[in-house]
Amino acid sequence: VPQVQPRAEELSELYRELSQHPGLSTACLGPDLTTQYGGKYCSLYTEWSQRDLARAENIKFCRQYLIFHDGASIVYSGPAGTCSEIKDELLSRESPSGTLKAVLRKVPGKEKEKEKQFLEVWDQNRKVKSIDLTALDKHGSVYDDDQFGCLAWSHSETHLLYVAEKKRPKAESFFQSKAPELGTSDEDTGHPKKEDAPIKGEQFVYHEDWGETLSTRSVPVLCVLDIEGNSISVLEGIPEHLSPGQAFWSPEDTGVVFVGWWHEPFRLGLRHCTNRRSALFYVDLTGGKCELLSEDTRAVWSPRLSPDGCRIVYLENNVLGPHQQCGRLRMYDWYTKHTTTVLEAVPRQAWGAFPGIYCGALPGMCWAADSRRILLDTAQRSQQDVFVVDTATGTTTSLTADAPQGSWSVLTIDRDLLVARFSTPSCPPMLKVAVLPTAGCEAQIQWICLQDAPAVPGINWGIRTLQPPPEQEHPQYGGLDFDAILMRPSEGPTAQKPPLVVMPHGGPHTVFTAGWMLYPAALCRVGFAVLLVNYRGSLGFGQDSVASLPGNVGTQDVCDVQFCVERVLQEETLDASRVALVGGSHGGFLACHLIGQFPDTYRACVVRNPVVNIASMVTTTDIPDWCLTETGLPYKPDALPDPAQLTEMLHKSPIRYVDQVRAPVLLMLGEDDRRVPPKQGLEYYRALKTRGVLTRLLWYPGNNHALAGVEAEADGFMNMALWLLKHLQ
Question: Which residue spans adopt a coiled-coil conformation according to this UniProt entry (predicted)?
Answer without folding.
Answer: none
